[in-house]
TrEMBL record:
Residues 81-362 form the Protein kinase domain. PROSITE patterns: PROTEIN_KINASE_DOM (PS50011), PROTEIN_KINASE_ST (PS00108). It comes from Helianthus annuus (Common sunflower). Its main location: membrane. It is found in: Cell membrane. GO terms for cellular component: plasma membrane. It comes from the Eukaryota. This is non-specific serine/threonine protein kinase. SUPFAM superfamilies: Protein kinase-like (PK-like) (SSF56112).
């Protein structure tokens, strides 16, 4: 499929590389397209090596269907990037919400979008922008965020994505006014993210995501998770190669220790990061928290020894779950996180193994906390009760008076609804 171009925007001007010398035109036979996994992807190194013709770039991104937007169009879409449309700011620049009218381009449906403006301070910003276009322009999967198009006009670099209504997992877990995420939904999110990573790792040319973290996991209305922000993604080792050597990049607290020390990047580096996110889902705590004592500031390092003990695990689980979780499920997720966080790469599972482990956990219904608690009847007048039933022990009278003053429950019976738990589990564990 061809990239839809506008007359005011030129793709090749955005490469900032040496323009390739024109080659004689020859008739090319189209190769049958079966799947992205069987097609050679175009990488950043291909472009910087001047291996592509500018007029042929639209045919060089297998499976892409990107739109090239003008700056004027994106100003209209986002109300001139107004503060009221601002969704947030990331490491690569601000993100604004916009709305595409169905009259903007033929074939482009009306829809809300997220527009990311790249911060181009330094050369790295442009490279990350181009890396995202190349990866998300060629990769399609239910658990990768969809790139609709881009803008490359003068010094402006922007990306236009599908809009994810619930924002990032980071905001849902740690936001100031966030609602606690039920356990079944957390498993659903982890499974979807694992499927996205497994897809990347199992490509003919593997893709190492390199920046897996809660802020890069976006959530749809029904909590379907999708990976976003491919600016640091990199082609993985091929053939007999065991790793790729690269400058260390990523986010503190999520980066695998061997990658930090050696710069050797492998798919298991992503697995370690996935283990960190699993611990965040279990505990409801950020991976780095400098407000805590020194030994507890790095969540993965502090929590890993506790993950193998069921007794210790129950003490560190997210208190906002309020006991409403599968005991078996949490223990299996904790055991999986323990394996992912191993300092020995060979002991970590692959992402496909992680998917196989998580998939059955979406059906676990052994929820704790299903009980009916009957509170003691409130005694309106202890003296009348003593007169009626005889003199009571002074300590007992004092206890009842103290209890009455501090009791908060107006109704004597407090119910938990097992049916509600089952309905919630069914509602959030939608078919993939």
């Amino acid at each position: 499929m061809r990239i839809k171009k506008s007359s005011n925007s030129s793709w090749w001007n955005c490469f900032k590389g040496q323009e390739p010398e024109p080659e004689p035109e020859t008739e090319k036979k189209a190769e049958p397209f079966t799947s992205l996994n069987s097609v050679k992807r175009i990488s950043y190194t291909d472009l910087s090596s001047s291996m592509l013709l500018s007029e042929d770039i639209s045919n060089s991104l297998p499976g892409s269907n990107l739109y090239v937007f003008t700056l004027a169009e994106l100003k209209v879409i986002t109300q001139t990037f107004s503060s009221s449309s601002l969704l947030g700011k990331g490491g690569f620049g601000p993100v604004h919400k916009g709305f595409i009218d169905d009259k903007l381009r033929p074939g482009l449906k009306a829809q809300p979008v997220a527009v990311k403006l790249l911060n181009l301070e330094g050369a790295q910003g442009h490279k990350e922008w181009l890396t995202e276009v190349l990866f998300l322009g060629q990769l399609r999967h239910p658990h990768l965020v969809k790139l609709i198009g881009y803008c490359c006009e003068d010094e402006h670099r922007m990306l236009v994505y599908e809009y994810m209504p619930r924002g990032s997992l980071e905001n849902q877990l740690f936001g100031r006014f966030s609602v606690p995420i039920p356990w079944s939904t957390r498993v659903k999110i982890a499974l979807a993210a694992a499927k996205g990573l497994a897809f990347l790792h199992e490509m003919k040319t593997p893709v190492i995501y390199r920046d897996f973290k809660t802020s890069n996991i976006l959530l749809d209305t029904d909590y379907t998770a999708k990976l976003s922000d491919f600016g640091l993604a990199k082609d993985g080792p091929e053939g007999e190669d065991t790793h790729v050597s690269t400058r260390v990049m990523g986010t503190h607290g999520y980066t695998a220790p061997e990658y930090l020390m050696t710069g050797r990047l492998t798919a298991s580096s992503d697995v370690y990061s996935f283990g960190v996110v699993l611990v965040e889902l279990l505990m409801g705590r950020k991976t780095m928290d400098e407000s805590r004592p020194n030994r507890k500031q790095n969540l993965a390092e502090w929590a890993r020894p506790l993950l193998k003990s069921a007794r210790k695990l129950n003490r560190i689980l997210d208190p906002r779950l309020e006991g409403q979780y599968s005991e078996t499920g949490t223990q299996k997720v904790a055991e999986l996180a323990y394996q992912c966080l191993s300092h020995r790469q060979k002991e970590r599972p692959t992402m496909s193994m992680i998917v196989d482990t998580l998939e059955p956990l979406t059906n676990f219904n052994d929820m704790l906390g299903t009980f009916v608690y009957t509170a003691p009847t409130v005694v309106e007048n202890p003296k009348k009760e003593m007169h009626k039933h005889g003199q009571k022990d002074n300590n007992e009278v004092h206890h009842h008076q103290h209890d009455r003053r501090h009791r908060r429950t107006k109704s004597p019976t407090v119910h938990s609804e097992p049916g509600l738990n089952r309905n919630l589990s069914t509602r959030t564990n939608l078919p993939e």
